[in-house]
């Protein structure tokens, strides 16, 4: 496995003539790798000849007062895990390599970013799209792999790729969970032992909500009951519990085929997000 820090070096390695007809699968990450990332690599490895992973804690997607400075980092461990998982090239640029000057061109993601995490993390998805645009231009991947745990990010990137005709396809990879249901996340290490024992309630509550929706319960009642369960059984502060059409992230209509039931909960040092996807059309009773 090669570790490269410069854009020029990476471009040389991935030069179209060098790679000839080999496809490139790309796994963008902010490091502190866990099994969720490794599931992305596994799929990329199965589907491509070359697998590239980027590890870059992107400052433009963190707002003032957010955890950019304290975001967990461990480059050595990440490199070992990436090598073991079969990554061919790890791209680990520093901040100056990615943002050598203070450019003021912004990218605005639109309506999909006005809800859920976008509503409370102003500018977050602008920063995500900025770095993704740069990474897609640098790596020029055939396929790019994103986890469903960050379902809003995934939906916005799918729109970005479609709207701006990127060459890459976006591959969705299911959320990887701990045995007790907690979605794997780099931020889980920041939970206190008490919070860690409470955290599986998020998924428990979402699953309950999903079941209720499938049984035909009204959306607002479901949102309320999911929030109630999280509030009663954890010490975290709920940012949102919301049900929206997926991947449009607009309010549900009679035509919606899939919905996302999502939540974000702020614990003392970690913000946790999770979601479940609910198929709506399959659940409708047959009209005959
Ligand atoms: O999901 C992440 O880790 C980040 O948002 C991403 C996609 C690597 C962009 O910095």
How is this structure best described in words?
This protein has 288 residues and is α/β, with parallel strands linked by helices. The protein has 2 domains: 2-173, Rossmann fold; 186-279, Pantoate--beta-alanine Ligase, Chain: A,domain 2. It is 38% helix and 19% strand. It has 11 helices and 9 strands. It has helices at 7-14, 16-19, 35-47, 75-85, 95-98, 116-120, 124-139, 151-163, 193-198, 201-214, 219-233; strands spanning 2-4, 24-29, 50-55, 89-91, 143-147, 169-173, 237-245, 258-266, 271-279. The strands form 2 sheets. Strands 1-4-3-2-5-6 form a 6-stranded parallel sheet, with helices on both faces. A 3-stranded antiparallel sheet has the order 7-8-9. Strand 3 (50-55), helix 4 and strand 4 (89-91) form a beta-alpha-beta unit. Helix 7 (124-139) packs across helix 8 (151-163) and helix 10 packs antiparallel against helix 11. The N and C termini lie far apart (58 Å). The structure holds pantoate. Residues 28-30, 58, 61, 128, 131-132, 150, 153 line the site of pantoate (PAF). Pantoate (PAF) binds at residues 28-30, 58, 61, 128, 131-132, 150, 153.
In short, what is this structure?
This protein has helices at residues 7-14, 16-19, 35-47, 75-85, 95-98, 116-120, 124-139, 151-163, 193-198, 201-214, 219-233, and strands spanning 2-4, 24-29, 50-55, 89-91, 143-147, 169-173, 237-245, 258-266, 271-279. With 288 residues, it is α/β, with parallel strands linked by helices.
Order of helices and strands: EHHEHEHEHHHEHEHHHEEE
Q: What is the CATH C level class of the largest domain, in words?
A: Alpha Beta
CATH architecture of the largest domain: 3-Layer(aba) Sandwich
Described by the principal axes of the CA atoms, the overall outline is globular
What is the first-to-last residue Cα distance? 58 Å
Helix content: 25-40%
The count of DSSP E runs of length 2 or more, i.e. the number of strands, is 9
Overall structural domain count: 2
CATH superfamily of the largest domain: HUPs
* Class by alpha and beta content: alpha/beta
